[in-house]
Design brief:
By secondary structure, this protein is α+β, with helices and mostly antiparallel strands. Helices cover 25% and strands 38% of the residues.
Length: 92
């Protein structure tokens, strides 16, 4: 990912995307907005919750209006891959 002003540029499942996070806070709130280049930004709530010396990452993926089942499933699989990558990186 590359920094782009207040956002990050990354490769999404269908091409380039921009991700804009909420400001840093001590509560583990890492909500973000994803801009795929067409349509409105997509709000993605995310929390990092301490758990016995580790952390749980909780992501809520809202199905967008008019989104076909296959696209919704593909988005969920993309998020799952990202979370597995995060886990693997954290476990070192």
């Amino acid at each position: 990912m590359d920094k782009d002003g207040e956002a990050w540029k990354a490769k999404g499942p269908e091409g380039p995307i921009r991700i804009r996070f909420t400001g840093h806070n001590p509560l583990g709130v890492m909500d973000h907005y994803v801009d795929v280049g067409s349509g409105p930004e997509v709000y993605v709530p995310m929390r990092v919750v301490p758990n016995a010396g580790r952390a749980e990452v909780l992501v809520t993926l809202f199905r967008q209006p008019g989104m076909p089942d296959a696209k919704s499933q593909a988005d969920a699989e993309w998020v799952q891959r990202d979370l597995l990558t995060l886990r693997d990186m954290a476990m070192g």
